[in-house]
Design goal:
By secondary structure, the chain is α+β, with helices and mostly antiparallel strands. It has a single domain (2-92), classed as Aspartate Aminotransferase, domain 1. Helices cover 44% and strands 22% of the residues. The chain has three helices and four strands. Strands 1-2-4-3 form a four-stranded antiparallel beta sheet, covered by helices on one side. The relative contact order is 0.24.
Length: 93
């Protein structure tokens, strides 16, 4: 499931993403340092879309889903992050 989530997140075309990294289901999405928004704002945007995350180091959000997550739930997480990234781009403008 970690590989599926990582592949899905990396397929999101967001100019504000600096790096997506992780091991297994422990995944971090880093926002570019030169952006006007940060990981804290991104975590709040994602929460409004229905997914709880944790901002770390002000520029990264941490995704740590349960190990029993299903394929459809992984796909839902990726969709939520993709939709939230569009809001993040609008907020950055």
């Amino acid at each position: 499931m970690g590989e599926r989530m990582m592949a899905g997140l990396k397929s999101i075309d967001c100019p504000l993403f600096k790096e997506i990294r992780g091991r297994g289901l422990f995944i971090g999405v880093e926002v570019n340092g030169d952006a006007k928004v940060d990981g804290n704002k991104f975590a709040k945007i994602i929460a409004k879309h229905g997914l709880l995350t944790k901002a770390t180091h002000d520029s990264t959000i941490r995704l740590t889903p349960p190990l029993v997550i299903t394929e459809s739930e992984v796909d839902e997480v990726v969709e939520i992050v993709a939709n939230a990234s569009k809001d993040l781009v609008q907020l950055n403008e």
